[in-house]
């Protein structure tokens, strides 16, 4: 799992390399040299330095901490990774970098990504299929292009109408949808 707040999921006094190595140890790996080598390779794969193994979480930027969280998830060699709002606390540039990294890792390594988010602009970038939930219930599901092009559920319509648009025509259309939904809801 990749958490929204990587700081909360990392021990503040613990070296990040040790946190990343936990899944390796849980699988029975005991050779410290091999563990360090695996963690160093994973750190490089996500754009960090092997020397970062010995740093504490507070020594990293928000985007770097999220990369540490991604690295820890990868160290378990998962078939699926749940990403719980993994970019919500990051600036737009760092969000784009982390989303691109997740997509690249998914293509290279193959794990399915379950991407939980409120920001539908980000969801569109990473999703083949989209599920919209309201109050813990699934209200819409389908291929991303279908859901974005023609949402059926009022909640999905409202979420999509809230996605910012640079094109003034698209922005006006979304504003009209929001007003219509507000008057009927």
Automatic annotation (TrEMBL):
UniProt cross-references to InterPro entries, sorted A to Z: ABC_transp_ATP-bind, ABC_transporter-like_ATP-bd, P-loop_NTPase
Classification via Pfam families: ABC_tran
Superkingdom, taxonomy of origin: Bacteria
Keywords assigned by UniProt, alphabetized: ATP-binding, Nucleotide-binding, Transport
Residue span, ABC transporter domain: 2-160
The keyword Transport belongs to this UniProt entry's keyword annotation: yes
PROSITE patterns given in the database record: ABC_TRANSPORTER_2
Gene Ontology MF term list: ATP binding
Family: Belongs to the ABC transporter superfamily.
Name of the protein in its database record: Peptide ABC transporter ATP-binding protein
